[in-house]
Every structure is written in structure tokens, then in C-alpha cells.
Amino acid sequence: MGDWNKNNTLLVFLLALVLVRLPLSIVQRTPFQPDESYQSLEPAHQLAFGYGHLTWEWRPNTKIPGVWWGWMGEGRLRGSLWVAFWAGIYWCLDILGLSEGNALIFFPKLIMAVLASICDSMTYTLASRLFNQSIARTALILSLSSLFYAHALTRPFVNSIETVLMVCALNFWPFPSARPQIQETISNDDPSGKSRPLATGIDFQERKRTRIALSLAAVDFIIRPTNAIFWIFLGGELLVRRWKEGKPKECGRLILESTFIGSIFLILSILLDTAIYPPADDATIPLTIPLLPFITHNLLLPTSHFYGLSSIHYHITQSLPILLFTATPFFLYSLLDVWKGRHGKTPLVLLGLAIWSIGVYSLLGHKEWRFLLPLLPVLHLMTSLKLAPILFRPSPSSSSHESTPESSSSPPKTTLNSRLFFFLTIPQIPLIVYLSCYHGAAQHEVIAHLRSQSQVESVGLLMPCHSTPWMSMLHRQDLEQDSWFLTCEPPLGTSARLHETMESIFYSSPSRYLLLYFPPSPVVSPRTFHTLRRLNPNIKPWPTHLAFFQTLLSAPNGEGDKVREILEERGFEQTWVSGWNGFDWAQDDERRRGGVVIWSRIKPVEDYS
């Protein structure tokens, strides 16, 4: 078992930050999924600056009618801790006068690069503590070269900070082969004059480390309640192990400490949530407790199913190969050895954690790759068990020399298997470049362009909902009131079969949408507009700039031509086109094919008053 070398950990952190994470974070100019903005930076921007878009999870939901537990659905689904962190960053930038420049975009990248580097270094430290330096170096290589880390970890997902906190907590967790071998000694009246060990059962240092792990786990749970899936297994395994060791008092102590620490952090989080997002005046409970509506809409109600259902084998057949990529065959190679206990008890615990977590997540209807992101450090450790002896082979020089007391106390010299190293890393580089710089780049590029154009008075995004960031990147309060994008709110208290969103209405017939939801002319008197709004409450004024994907103008059944005709009749012309948006066949939504274009209202049109 390797020592926890703080100097090595710091060195690994700095190298990971400077050589990998910060460069990747800086060049990253593509989106992955909407939650990277709308569950972190966007609500933080609204909290810090007073404007921005809040999705339905961040707005106070009402009581669910018709069921006795309906009151549990009241309030917001999301806790404010992660958002408050980003809001604090925004406040600091605003105080320093840096909120109007590129610092608003750069600092989140810098912070996420730091957090990702902490994940890398703590993965190395954990492997060193549990196993040896060879396995630690292998786990570090897997972490730094991970395609999924490169694509997701440096984004402000809740899953990203969940992963960082998870691997940090695991560094303090009492695994079977990782308990610090420390015993207190006392001087006594033994005639021999020798000190004897103080029989304490479990040493004080381990208890202290376990409390730190529990505290980190509690913070992780507050940020993302589904993290409890991981800790239910780890806590249960530790209780069973202590009981089998004949230490029932330690089981009781662990339960009490877990309850106490969890309660303290839960109370603090409720106070923070209530202070930031006070409950409605007619709320059943005069406190903001996001955990209750989170459970209601994710377990008691199929609200999350609105965003897609996946097969039960999704995480096994898709998530694992995507998370591990080139390391997948070595992970599979390690499973049998771990299962047979050839690497000791700790890998069995890690394997149990992986099986349990993947199994529970597989039972949930809505699945995404990133839900398993906190498990990736564990998967890297398990993969390294079999990969390390192949990747780091004993050097010929070390085996040819006779063993000496000095050499036997130091790790044997090894050489890197360059072919295997290149197999693990080289195939990922072009994919990392493509995903970071090109795949969906137009969705960020268009917002950056609109932000820089002072003549823009209002913006409308005719594209799949949440295709772009909003005010967290646009950051123009003058555009807040009259700008909009198509939304896709889930059915809350209504039948999913009858539910329609602005997005679904638009894409069912784009030309009909433009005719029904906008005035006949962009120039219309306030009185006429109010008359039109009485007839159709959803009608809105024409913006000065419309952005949409080029594929809209080639929509089937003549819809593309109709859209073009309607826009041209109302004085719109194409004034900007994005750069390459990636391969059309690789887009997860065919409606996002082609680049993004901006049509501006520049021609005079007839006044409709």
C-alpha cells in the first residue's frame, strides 16, 4: 500500500492543470448538454445579476392535485449550493469590474479546470493509497487521457463537482486494505519500561478520516441527491465489515456520526435554500426543501420520462464503453480477477460499488451517460489493476542486478510500454479536438456574436429548446425583456399525451407558428398589439434578430420555403452565418443540422396598425 504523499499529489495537480485541464478548458467552445448552463451558470447569473432564464426546476412548483402527498411537489427541485458558488464568482467579478468582458466566460473555465485537476490528482492519490505507485500512475494516465473527462469534467455540470467530491471522499474512506496502521502508545508501569499499545479497536486517525469522508458525502448529497446511491452501498458495506470484525460499537458509532453529520449539513442547506429562494406565501411548509419535490418528480411522478426513456441495458451497452473508451477491454479483463479476489478485498468493494450503482441507475427510466461520471474514478482504479503490469513492465536493468537491502526497499524500476500507451491515448486526441472545438460550436458562436453586436435590440431563437446558453453568455440586460427562445417544459399536472410545448408546436409547422404567434407585420402600434394579444395570449412582437439552424430552410413539405417567404415579407434578410457546426450525421438531433444563421430585420415594411 502506497503512502499518501502530499508533495506528489500537489505535483500531479499542477501538472494536470497546466498541461491538460486548463488548455482543454480554454479551447472548449462547444456545448454538451443543456444542464451545463441551465442547472448552474444560468440560475447563478439570475441570482447574481437579477436577470436570466430559470427552467421549471428552479421555479416554485405548485401542489400536486388528487394525491395525499401532493404537498411534496411544492417548491423548487434544485438545491442552491452549487448555484450559490457560481453566483459568488459572478459577484466577485462584478465588484472587480470584470463582468462585462470575457472574464465572465473565462473564469468558469478556469475554475472547472482546477476542479478537474483535483479529480485527477485525488485519483492518483487514492490509487497510491490503496495499491501501489504503478497502479497509481496507470490510473492517472487513464484519468488524464479520458475522452469523457475531456468532454464533460471541465463543464459546470452538477455531475462534475459530484465526481470531484466523490473521489475526494473516497480518499478518506476506510477501505479494507487502506486503514492507516497507526496505534497510540502510552507509557505505563510495565517493569520492562516498554510502552504498550493503547487498545482502542479503531484508531482515532481513522475515525477522523471517516468523518471527513462523511462530510464530503453529505455535501455531495446536498448538491445532487442521487449521489446517495453510491454511499448507501459504501456505508452498508462498512457496517457489515465492522460487524463481522466483532466491533458492534463501531457500527453504532458509524450510524450515529452519519446521522449527525448528515443532519447538520441538511439543516444548513435548507437554511441556505430558504434564504435564497423563499417559499411561496401559501406553501404548506414555510421552508424551501428541494429534496421533497426532487423525489416527487423523479420517483413518484414520471416527469423525467418526458425527456426520454432508455432501455435497461443502456448503461452497460452505452455508458460504460463511452466512459472508458479505449480502456474498455482492460476493464473487462480486470473484472474476472477482481471477482475471484486475486487483488484483495478493496477491489471487491469497488466492484460491488460499480455493480450496485449501475444496477440502480439502470432501473431509472431516464438515463444519461454523465449520470455515471462519479463512478469513473472507481472504474479507472479497477482497470488499472490489470493494465498496470502491462503498461509498466519491469526494466531489464532492474532484473539483471542483484537485490540489495537498498533496492528491495524501493519500488522496482519499470519502463513504459509505449505501444500500449499510444493505443490508450492517441485514438482519443482527434475525438477530443472535434468534440471540444467543432461539434455544435455554432450554438455558442451565435450567442457570442449577438453579444458583441450593439445594434441588436431583441433576439429570438427558433431552434430546439436550450440549444444555446442564454444570459450567462449573452449577458445583456437590455435584451432580457424582448428576447426569447422556444421552450420545452414538461407536463406538470397535465396529461403527457395532451401536453404541447412551444418547441413541439413550432416544429409541427414552422410557417403556421410564425403566422399565429407573431403580428402580421413587425411594425405595429401598441394598441393593435394589445388587441392581438387578447385574441392570442402567446403572441409576441417580432425581434430584430432571429437565429436558427440552416436545416430549417430546407424543411420538408415546402415548410422551409414558406418560412423563407414569411421572413422576407417582414423585412428579414440573412446577415450572419456561423462556422462549421460539426458533422451533420453526428448531431444528436437532426433539427440541429447545418450551421446557425441570423436573419436581421433590415428592410422597411408596411405599418400594421
From TrEMBL:
Residues 1-29 form the signal peptide. The keyword Hydrolase does not apply. GO terms for molecular function: alpha-1,2-mannosyltransferase activity. InterPro entries: GPI_mannosylTrfase (IPR005599). GO terms for cellular component: endoplasmic reticulum membrane. It comes from the Eukaryota. Its EC number is 2.4.1.-. The keyword Cell inner membrane does not apply. It is found in: Endoplasmic reticulum membrane. The chain crosses the membrane at residues 212-234, 254-277, 313-336, 348-364. It is a multi-pass membrane protein. Keywords: Endoplasmic reticulum, Glycosyltransferase, Membrane, Signal, Transferase, Transmembrane, Transmembrane helix. GO terms for biological process: GPI anchor biosynthetic process. It holds the Pfam family Glyco_transf_22. PANTHER family: GLYCOSYLTRANSFERASE, GPI MANNOSYLTRANSFERASE 3. Belongs to the glycosyltransferase 22 family. PIGB subfamily. Mannosyltransferase involved in glycosylphosphatidylinositol-anchor biosynthesis. Transfers the third mannose to Man2-GlcN-acyl-PI during GPI precursor assembly. This is Mannosyltransferase. The lineage of its organism: Eukaryota, Fungi, Dikarya, Basidiomycota, Agaricomycotina.
